[in-house]
Amino acid sequence: MKIKVKMIGHFIYEAGFSEKELELEKPITASQLLSFINIQEQRPKIIIRNGRAIALDEELEDGDRIAISPIYSGG
Amino acid sequence: MNGWSGNLLRINLSTKSAKKESFTEEFAKTWIGGRGFAIKILWDELKPGIDALNPENKLVIALGPIAGIPAPNTGKTVVAAKSPLTGGYGDGNLGTRVTVELRKAGYDAMIIEGKADSPTYLNIVNDKVEILPANEIWGKGTYDTMDWLYKKYGKAAGILTIGQGGENKVLYAVIRSMEGRSGGRPGIGAVMGSKNLKAIVVKGTKDIPMANPAGMKELGAEDLKKVGAIDKKTGWSIQGTTGVLSWCNEVAALPVRNMRKTSHPDAWKIDGERLNNARVATYGCPNCTMRCGIAIHDHEGRESELDYENIGMLGSNLEIFDLPQVASLNYLCDDYGLDTISAGGVLGFYADAVDRGSIEGDFKFGDAERAKELLRMTAYREGVGDFLAGGTMRMAQKIGRNSMDYAMQVKGLEISAYNCKFIPGMALAFATSPIGAHHKESWVIMFEITQTSRESYGREKAQKVIELQRIRGGMFEFIVACRFPWIELGWDLQHYADYFNKITGMNWTLDDFFKVSDRIYALMKFFWVREFPNWDRTRDYPPKAWFDPSNADKEGPIAGKILEWDKFEKLLDSFYEIRGWDKRGIPTKKTALGLGLAEEAAQVEKYSKLE
Q1: Regarding the domain delimited by B238-419, which CATH topology (the fold level of the hierarchy) does it fall under?
Q2: Model-level pTM?
Q3: Considering only CB atoms, which residues of chain B are within 8 Å of chain A?
Q4: DSSP letter for each residue of B452-501
Q5: Is the minimum CB–CB distance between A42 and chain B shorter than 8 Å?
Q6: ipTM above 0.85, yes or no
Q7: CATH architecture, domain B420-611
Q8: Which of A56, B15, B456, B532 has the highest count of CB atoms within 10 angstroms of its CB?
Q9: Is the pLDDT of residue A40 over 90?
Q10: pLDDT, tens digit, for every residue of B271-324?
């Protein structure tokens, strides 16, 4: 399955990329995605799937757009 | 009194007089400083119903007891007056060396009254106040003005100035300081201009009275280092406030095309990553170790200091996705001394009205060059600039044709860069902000998206808005400090109470601060009610565009969704109920008395009966 992954804020520098398309052999959860792209789980973050915030155990689907972002507070 | 000099400086430009006045310990402990001092002074001293550009208006510049003392982010000052844009209470908060210098000059606030008979500036050095002719700088932009004043008074001087926008009384003209700092969105710069006051220069050399100076010096320095270290570790200031643009684009909250749309495929071109890549300098306020002012070269090669609101309102809201061009628009706003949020809201509304055929005009979304020209015309009130200078509410009143529905403002102040067509709690935050729509009081979007549910209009959202107002629009605005270490880096709120207590020798808890916040919010509301005696809840409504089903996104995560009026009314009811305000949004007698506002309540009753 193919998913698009976008990193936001300081996660760009942690992951080493800003946006890329991933091709995966089988479905994964959000948590597994984080490991796959080498993002430490401890840093506070919000995972957005097609515009909605999701939990770590949510399973991703083909065609998803995932964004990983700091927990903004509106400045 | 530790923490307060107990002095304010009253300057009358009509009589060319300057007087040091003292205030009581009771006043200090009831209103604390900043926004608290400002609302109480304006309430007491302004005659209701005056024209805000009339010499009878007063400009209040107010510090807080921790302001200017080295500690995390204490370099900010509140500027306030009756707003010419909204007709109600107006204020702003900007980083400026005036914070430090005014404290060292021995004042906690300044009140500027009357009107000079010709362009004037002030030079304040401790007890000495000079009222000087400003004919050499009148007509100059804020950058040239500051250069002229720095040459004369040295680079360490504290300077507040206005640009041509303030001189020509554009209703959203602001006060400017340093490289890119500005404040006073609802036309506080226009009030300064209406007094023929071009600039205020301050230098001070006295000690600031503190209960524990040695202890505070050590604590402040240590904490500044700690905050800096957290920033370095988290990498927050790499993109600063601008990182949120990408997030807004993902969750469909970005202002695009006069907030008609919520995201755009080109948004990445003006995002925080692009901005950081183009960075040529970093600027910040005094006493800050997480500086958020990212400067890049604009289209004309000038240094332009950008933050999220600038790129949201002058970029995506106008569908201008050329970062140097957005920087140029921002530079022009800073030089002319115009609020970038309102400028972006005004230009967006204008383009929208033209696009809809509601008005004849030649401005299209995406036209950066024309936008530059329109900003110039606005600053000089030339041609259509005179129309634009009034702000979206007045523009819509003139246009008619239901254009008020899409004038993105509340109480006359343009909404800042969060498109809430499907974010009920944030729509409430904008609706109930005490100066007109502003996100600074309360920002609840993350809470709505992660802690509760986006589609909820539940009481928990009203509760959250008030909780944040107590801190952001209350505490930080009256002790006066920048909230960023707390809100962006998780710097515990308790630290600020500790600074306050160490400096004043008092023993306050956070609840003590929140009580003051509630008092200030109630008095700010009374100020509005006194100015608009037929006050009702309709002035706390967001624009109709956010409730119009035909305005819902056609695609994306919130496709087909829009705010619902009946549900919003209930949410607003929850807000009033929690605050102890009646259904019109006016504090009840019981609430006012509980906050120590018996006198003020008796006064406002002459204008509107309290429940």
Answers
A1: 1.10.569
A2: 0.98
A3: 234-236, 238-239, 241, 243-244, 246-247, 250-252, 268, 272-273, 307-308, 418, 439, 443-446, 449-450, 454, 484, 487-488, 556-558
A4: S-TT---HHHHHHHHHHIIIIIIIIIIII--SHHHHHH---HHHHHHHHH
A5: no
A6: yes
A7: Orthogonal Bundle (1.10)
A8: B532
A9: no
A10: 999 999 999 999 999 999 999 999 999 999 999 999 999 999 999 999 999 999
